[in-house]
Amino acid sequence: MRTLPLLLAALLLAAGCANRTVLVDTHNDTEILAGLDYKDFEAAAAETTQAILASAKVRALTPPGKIYVVAIGNVSDETNLGIDTDLLTARVSEALLADERFALSAVFADKASNRDETISDARAVRGNDEFDQATIQKKGQLKAPDFSLTGKIIARDLRRDNGGTQHEYYFQLRLNDLAAGTAVMVKETRIVKRTE
Predict the structure, then answer these.
(1) Residue 32 burial (C-beta neighbours within 10 Å; 0-12, 13-18, 19+)
(2) H or E segment at 11?
(3) Which DSSP string do the residues of 109-124 spell out, in sequence order?
């Protein structure tokens, strides 16, 4: 009989210790985490985009009057953190699309999830008399990319003299000119955090 009151007391105590969920105000969030969080990806994406848009070489290769297609190439996760690199490339893509010079390729991308299979599916029905052929996409309309964005994310943990850890994260991105096969902009963003 004494077991039931103890069980109820334990349940009440556990309920009182449950974690509380709060909505984070991402515009005023100042909490710093040892690992990578959304603020780190936003910072790396912003620095990369600013470097692309400010680059004299990129401006010389993208004069006004044309839209230049960028393909998101391989951005590899060289860490043991299991990072989805879209956390970085999606933000860079969004910023590039806001600039009137750039469009993103939906045909060429490093991941199947970033390619739109509907593009080829819509062309596969050419000659199929079930479809109004006047509504089928005409040949020669797809745009090949002018540039690709590639790179990698690296993480290192270093032991500090005080027994804490220094966490170093490197976001290394390149914008490549596909006509020349050369990198025209390289940007490394370093994020360093320390724990006691």
Answers:
(1) exposed
(2) helix 3-16
(3) ESSGGGS-THHHHHHT
pTM: 0.82
* Cβ proximity of 195 and 32 under 8 Å: no
Can you list the domains of the chain with their CATH numbers?
35-195 (3.40.50)
- CA dihedral 46→111→182→146, nearest 10 degrees, is -80
pLDDT (tens digit, 0 to 9) for every residue of the chain, 196 residues total?
Answer: 566 666 666 666 666 566 889 888 888 888 888 889 999 999 999 999 999 999 999 999 999 999 999 999 999 999 999 999 999 999 999 999 999 999 999 999 988 888 999 999 999 999 999 999 999 999 999 999 999 999 999 999 999 999 899 999 999 999 999 999 999 999 999 999 999 8
60 with 175: CB under 8 angstroms?
A: no
State how far the Cα of 76 lies from the Cα of 81, in Å rounded to an integer: 12
What's the Cα-to-Cα distance from 31 to each of 26, 40, 80, 109, rounded to whole Å?
10, 12, 23, 34
56: three-class secondary structure by DSSP = helix
The sign of the torsion formed by the CA atoms of 53, 59, 62, 63 equals positive
Per DSSP, the chain holds a count of helices (H) and strands (E) of 5, 5
Distance from C-alpha of 173 to C-alpha of 189, rounded to nearest angstrom: 9
Retrieve residue 33's tokens. 């985490």
